[in-house]
Amino acid sequence: MKLFARRIMIISILIILMSLLDFLDNTIIRLFKFEDEGLFELVVDFISPIFEVALMFWALLTGKNVIKRIQKEDEHYKRLVQLSPEAIIIHKKGKILFINESGANLLGSSSSSELINRNVSDFVHEDSKGLFHNLLGQIEKRPNSEFNQQIKMKRVDSAIIDLEYKSTKIDFKGQSVRELIIRDITIQKNEIEHVKRLAYQDELTGLPNRRAIMDQLTQLLKTSEKNELNFGVMFIDLDGFKQVNDSFGHDGGDILLKQVSEYFKRCVEGKGTVARVGGDEFLVILNQIGNDEHIKVAEKMMESLSSPMIIFGKKARVTPSIGIALYPQHGHEVRELIRNADVAMYQAKQRGKNNFQLFGGGT
Fold this sequence. Notes:
The protein is of the alpha+beta class. The protein contains 10 helices and 12 strands.
């Protein structure tokens, strides 16, 4: 394009000079006092049009060659884009103008032509709609900028995938558009989520682990302080669990812990969260403790373990010793509340096990 522009500029200058020579021939004759004026005018009048026509043909030929080269480069670009393993979408304000085969496959379509003129937002998952529309707004404000983003998409076959894309401004068929170069990061996202689950979930029971319940309790404490709410913390230890492990082995103990976890979840359902924080130790957060809710939940837990469980075809029985601490009566800090619930749990054990005790005495 630069070469074409330079050539056109030179041609234009030469045409202008020839036109001026033709237009000012009489002035030139008088200025330079040519003796044979007729010969000079004849030369100018004859050569000038021929030279101008030649220049015009040169301009046309140059333009034609440039156009061919642009078309060739455009075809080459299209082939590269079509063969690219990366998904590429070209859109204007969300409307798809072009998508390569990799992009069509990524969105679950057998043909890229099926997706032309559809809107990219049609494939954006509900969880990412706000993020995508915010991006379009940013592009309106900064059209020349490059944007990188991760987004959740819904394919044609309704499968949910996670994508990472780069959005840049390009020229396409004479108009300013956006090009998306997209990468599927579903596997990586799943691996990250798996690592997070391992970090915050008890592997055996699927319950939240100590880290998760501590984070939740910290957040609940902040909310309760701000809104002057009450909540309860229960620390539970299983009486007789060592005997189960000794009799049935660790596999039998694991089976029992899974069953107990399910029982406790049902007892607390809708009222709070159950977490496993140690071998046979559980921590419970009760979001509300009005109407002696903590006592009702403790009684349900004791009742849920009142009957023996069957492990490897044999009966096994454990009972809960439950300690309860209430906010704000029994502490204003997370560790203080857990410590006091733990103290109350040991009081329950000292008083015969299979019972619950409120910190400071009482049931």
